[in-house]
Design brief:
Shape: flat
CATH topology of one domain: Immunoglobulin-like
Helix content: 10-25%
Radius of gyration: 26 Å
Strand content: 25-35%
Number of helices: 2
Distance between the termini: 88 Å
Strand order of the largest sheet: 1-2-7-6
Structural class: alpha+beta
Number of strands: 7
Order of helices and strands: HHEEEEEEE
Length: 154
């Protein structure tokens, strides 16, 4: 048996490991930006805006990031503990004669549904739209709130 000295592959010479990781990250990003990854938005014209759900002392709050829309373009429904938000964003300008280089803003219909973690007071639900953020405030029902139990003496 003969021993052969290890030779580092030529593509690794004089390169830091971070450069290889950066190249891999760039390649993954390029693949994600390929036309196939935009299949839904190109062919079905759908998008899903970012959504946050959190609970404070008295409310469940849902925030949806939907810049460029008007209040009248939203439809909200609450049924069996599920909040459904849908809408449609349309852009006014048409670029039919312009050459496009990049398009990242979505337009078209969207729908998001959130199963609420607790019962809410449906008659007191409110929604506001400001600075591109739709905020839905759902007051927690009294029966769903924790109750303080006092221990009495015998």
């Amino acid at each position: 048996m003969t021993l052969v000295k290890y030779a580092r592959p030529a593509f690794l010479l004089n390169r830091s490991p971070f450069e290889a990781v950066n190249r891999l990250q760039e390649e993954v990003q390029r693949l994600l930006e390929a036309p196939l990854s935009d299949f839904g938005t190109q062919f079905f014209n759908v998008w899903a805006p970012a959504l946050d759900v959190y609970e404070d002392k008295d409310n469940i709050v849902v925030k949806l990031e939907v810049p460029g829309m008007k209040r009248e373009n939203f439809d909200l429904a609450l049924h069996d503990g599920v909040l459904s938000i849908s809408g449609e964003r349309k852009f006014e300008e048409k670029r039919q004669k312009a050459a496009g280089y990049r398009a990242e803003r979505f337009e078209g219909r969207f729908q998001r549904s959130v199963t609420l973690p607790k019962a809410v007071q449906t008659d007191k639900v409110s929604a506001t739209y400001r600075d591109g953020i739709l905020t839905v405030t759902l007051p927690i029902a009294a029966e769903a709130r924790p109750k303080q139990i006092v221990v009495g003496a015998e």
